[in-house]
Amino acid sequence: MENRNYKFRKATLADIPELKEMYKATLRTINKADYTPEEIEDWASCGDDIQHLADLITNLYFIVALNEEDLIIGFTSIQKDGYLQSMFVHKDYQHRGVASFLLSMAEEYAIKHQIPIITSEVCITAKPFFESKDYKVMREQKRKANILFLTNYWMKKEL
After folding, report:
1. Which of 41, 42, 115, 148 has a Cα at 20 to 30 A from 4?
2. Does pLDDT of 4 surpass 50?
3. 33: in domain
4. Is residue 53 in a domain?
């Protein structure tokens, strides 16, 4: 179900604690069907790198989606070369159009900046969503979280 009543704004450094908690809670709840508990905890530990998150917010087009009460319910970020760095939707807002909303904002940014192709490394859980939005799997791969190597997919879409 699409809901275009969501709002968005650029993320700020003050959002980091909330983003970190949402990231970890989403992984531990939503992604547990596709990854082992050990993989989830290793992946979640990547959210402990506050400086990395600060760098992404400072250097990328990094936006947060807000609900009617202006609470953060998701985020995405895209690099100037079209690499979709991140996309997470709050565990309580799955299947409510938030990911579609965020992806449309990232794609609008790419079109506005004449970026012809968006690429991303997409987890097993998100792969069907991205395929439904015309992203194609280029290859399956193993990517290191902190210690473990997790399966994901290099995907792309030509705009």
Report:
1. 115
2. yes
3. yes
4. yes
Number of folded domains in the chain? Answer: 1
Average pLDDT over residues 113-122: 98
114: exposed, middle or buried (Cβ count in 10 Å: 0-12, 13-18, 19+): exposed
Question: pLDDT tens-digit profile of 76-109?
Answer: 999 999 999 999 999 999 999 999 999 999 999 9
Q: What CA–CA distance (Å, rounded) separates 97 from 94?
A: 8
**pTM listed for this prediction:** 0.95
Span between the terminal Cα atoms of the chain, in Å: 23
**CATH code of residue 16:** 3.40.630.30
* Gyration radius of the chain's alpha carbons: 15
Domain enclosing residue 52, as ranges: 7-114
Write the CB contacts of 132 (distance below 8 Å, at least 6 apart in sequence). none
Q: What is the bridge-based pairing of β-strands 149-158 and 72-78?
A: unpaired
Is the sign of the CA dihedral 111, 114, 117, 122 positive or negative? negative
